[in-house]
Amino acid sequence: MHDHDNDHDHGSDLDEMTARVRALETILTRKGLVDPAAVDAIIDTYQNKVGPRNGAAVVARAWTDPAFADHLRRDATAAIAQMGFTGRQGEHMQALFNSADTHHMVVCTLCSCYPWTVLGVPPVWYKSPAYRSRAVREPRAVLADFGVTLPAGQAVKVWDSTAELRYLVIPQRPAGTEGWDADRLAALVTRDSMIGTGLALSAEPQP
Length: 207
What we know:
Layout: H1 16-30, H2 36-49, H3 53-64, H4 66-74, H5 76-82, E1 93-97, E2 102-107, H6 116-119, H7 124-127, H8 129-137, H9 139-145, E3 155-160, E4 166-170, H10 182-186, H11 191-195
Parallel strand pairs: 1-4, 2-3
């Protein structure tokens, strides 16, 4: 699933979508309609200063604060805003809590609706036609492509993100993290685990 970037050979290292965006940016810059520095600042903000670290903070707080977790279940938009994470693409949110019974996964079948305020810029594969179609038809196979194998008894529920409603998956808290504070827990939360194509990192050191 991660090789979508290389589905087409355009004679460059850029995937098709990135090449198109670069070409459009060049045209608009030459016409004086776009300031490249402003574009870079916007990209830097969403890639490095907001999500997915924002989303990880939300998840870690949900793991450690039952009252906040309850608020997140009832009104994710308000709960997330309470932490100061607001803005475009994050106005209408719903939190999906993974459990031993159910694993949630998010896709946008029509385009690439995505909660930028908590997850940052959407990955290329999230916008690819292959992911958008296969996630609905064969979610377990898609998860396997990401290296995730779920227990046979754990159901997979796929949610279709739209402009009116975006989702944040709250992955299961890893075992062995009892007593950890929110900052330490946030380091275990990955972007993919908040989309549902991954799991939170293990508390055990990786070899």
